[in-house]
Amino acid sequence: MGKRVIIIVLDSAGIGEMPDSPSFGDVGVNTLRSCSESQYFSLPNMGRLGLFNIDGAGFGTPVSSPEGVYCKCAERSMGKDTTIGHWEIAGLVTPEPLPLFPDGFPEEILAPFREATGRGVLCNKPYSGTDAIADFGDEHRATGKLIVYTSADSVFQIAAHEEDVPPETLYEYCRAARKILTGKYGVARVIARPFEGTSGNYKRTTRRHDFSLEPSGPTLLDVVKEAGQEVLAVGKIFDIFAGRGITDHVYTAGNAEGIERTLEWMDRDFTGLLFTNLVDYDMLYGHRRDVDGYAKALTFFDERLPEILSKLRDGDILMITADHGCDPAYTKTTDHTREYVPLLMTGKGVAPENAHVRETYADIAKTAANWLGIEETVLAGRRII
Asked: What is the CATH architecture assignment of 107-212?
């Protein structure tokens, strides 16, 4: 079999503020350092690969002889959201920020959305997702109007109760919104947020679905597929890249299933890329500012890491990274935080070293393409790690 690259994104597991983080409203942030202060934080396996040896990490105990390549990567794209973070990991830098709506969405968006869905709109402002269903859930159920809200990220989110708006219907509403939200209104993601329960006890379900803006240029996924190799996507990778450049995919309901599907797909015979997103860190713990929950989730991954390492074949490399930060101890906001991301890389053909600080997440894509023997000139990464 040919070579394989396995990239696992620990969604939002940033490793400290960048020089420009204050301009994004983020001062003193460090997602992993905050988690390290929890009694539930234990990452010996990532530690052996070099996590605590990363320049300026500021947490954990460095090991004397790390077993992997370790470094941190700066974000060159102008944002701190899931979409452009993953795009940059895949070699596509976004120099202009995607549109934000701090005052809610204008009528030019809402009017055609109401016409397309036949439903009114509630909320229409930046809002916590759990607060949105708590505050507007009853009115939504009484009137049939959809709860539409945004955040500090470039998102258009639609919440609806599953008994009143079945998830498949909600997805159709999202597809209608995606067609409307283009050009200057081209948000990164339209997100379906189905929920269930009764008044005073509403909770979001696992049937969330993201409808992403198509990447604005070629990515690692495109060049791997065009080279005749496979691109396998686990979790929300398919949505983040709007399905482009992917040969097979599977959705997951959370980190545990994401790890299981990754392990299963590592048993497949393929040449190319296996790209996994583990979303619980961000969705369940980062935004909810739950330090202990985040730490437990990191520890769970670290406990499963030996299983992943055991499935590496000759010619495989494993890359563990993140797409942005979401510091659970940063109480100024509940939004993502602009941070460096860690990168740990290992495999039988990988010599351990400190790769220090990379200028862009996109060096990951450059390195992956080079490992897979793909000649390309379109990815943004400047250096091979």
From this structure: 2-Layer Sandwich (3.30)
